[in-house]
UniProtKB/TrEMBL annotation:
InterPro entries: LipidA_mod_glycosyltrf_83 (IPR050297). This is Glycosyltransferase RgtA/B/C/D-like domain-containing protein. It is a multi-pass membrane protein. GO terms for molecular function: pentosyltransferase activity. Keywords: Cell membrane, Glycosyltransferase, Membrane, Transferase, Transmembrane, Transmembrane helix. One of its GO terms (cellular component) is plasma membrane. It comes from Caballeronia terrestris. The chain crosses the membrane at residues 111-130, 135-152, 158-185, 197-215, 271-290, 302-324, 331-350.
Amino acid sequence: MIKIEKNLSLLFICAAAVFLYAIHRRIGIELPDDAAFFLRYADNAAQGHFWVWNIGEAPVWGASAPFFPLLLVPLITLGVPSVTSIVWASALLSAASLAAMAVLIARRFGFLSAIAFVVLGALDTGTMFYAGTGLETPLTFALISFALFALLERRGEVAIGIAAGLLAIHKMDLIPVGGLLVLAYSWQTRRMPIRSAVLALVIACLWYGFAWWYFGAPVPNSFLTKALHQNDFVNIIDWRWFGSTVYYRFDHWPLSLLALLGLVRLRKGFAPLLLLMLGLLAVHLAAYTVKHPFEPYDWYCMPSLLVLLILASAGVGFIGELLGARGNKRLLVGAVSVLLLLAVIVRYEIDFQRADTLSRQNWLRYVEHDRAEAGRWVDENTPASFRLVTAWGNPAYFSRRYVYDLSFLNRRYEPGDLIEKYRPEILIFQNSEPSTPLTPDQYGPNYTPVRIFDSAFGNGEGNYFFTVYARKDVLPQIRNVTLPLATSCVAEQFCQRYQPLKVSEASATRPVSLPANTVASTTCHIDEINGSAFPSNEKFAAKQSVNLSGWALNGSEKSLPITLYVKLSGAAGTFYAPARSLYARPDVPAALGLPESLKDAGFKAKLDLSAMPAGDYDVAMLVGSKTETQECAQKTLHLSR
């Protein structure tokens, strides 16, 4: 017994270290936006204001997991920086909870299953990302681990009741899971656990009753907003989002297959556990399929993904048991089989998981950084009395200003134009789709842009940038306003990179942006015309628009082209039309042995040739630099009437 307990202690330490390392590898330079909502509440609570969005206002239950911010208050009160507190409290709580789960799995399913749980969990980027980035997932892991511990270790009605009550408080979508826990314990003990049910109900009623009295509503304000006021938002996901995210996207399909084996392994002797876990999977799948959010809140999937990892680890252990069932060295055969299987899974998934990690970290590095920097700029350059309108957590938190929250997650919903109603001194908004950093959105005659943060736009993360607007009458009170506004756009075509490609009419006038000195170049290529390889479809009627695509570089400087034109020259004359560069072509620098920074070497052009005479034209690409125009002669096009 002593030896087993030592092994379990060693397993806990090793598993916690592995999880902590895996979480650390997924942490980015900024918080996900919703984590900053939690942090604003935690900071205010640490200053003695408990649960308020704006100090001095009535409290609002804005963040849907009420206990998570409160965990941060002791650390912040002790002087630990707030962002450090939320990241490392998340990472440590997640690592400890998941390591405790590994120990529980070892006790009930065997060490091979526990090893599988650690490997599969640490490998999954989504799980590790949300385990350490400041959202409520760490506390979710801790409470589910406690619930499974109370059930599998038969800790009695009081432990079951406490676990069920805490689940019901932590998040509303875990209320049914608390009920399932009580039912599972009833099945396990073959009697109705009255004390468990009453204790869970008392704990839940105490909190929700307090919330009704303190906040004026028994449910989170964010829940009411999402349920009642987000129905008209443009959905970027559909009903398939939840099921696909949990069961096969992000390379989860191996987990699903192994989980089916886990169900076979647990069908005998673990019926109460299966009731709880399958019930959780079914409830969340039904809830988020029938009523999905308008955008992918992937951390909503973490309870189901944790259950999937547990079932998959049981499935891996089952394979080890089957392969090691015979022979004198059956334990060795089973262990080697499991390790080989895990090695195959790791080798299969590692490239995707690395890419997923980079994608998530780039989002934090650019998009969330722009959001946070907008807030920091307001904090550093405007009077503390200024009020702000925004709809995101990072600007709200880092501005450290009175904030009118236009997401209405942290403010009771108000119809109408809040900008007109409250006339705040500062606005921070994300751009709309048609706008660019050179043409930011306008919010009436009383406001003007004073700062643009667009590193995401400039680094290929998409059409995302954030603009700080100031009320014109308070401009003299704001520091560090430099006009014209600096952006990442070095040319108009760069600024249009995410806009729909427009048809450009070929003109006989040579563009003035192209230097007269023209030299031959080989650092470009026209790959396709109207979606087909160029030589296979080269005859066109003048009334047709012509779509060209390929790649081009500024060969003399080994840089991406800023000025790029299509040149069509024939007996009837020479014509020019602009092309848009900076499309993703990672194959180009790889093939030419050039830096990865040139991965956006692709170009596209949509040409209107209706004004050109019929005939044969040589098609070339012109790349303009400061001192010369580089010409790549490429193909021949026959234009007919």
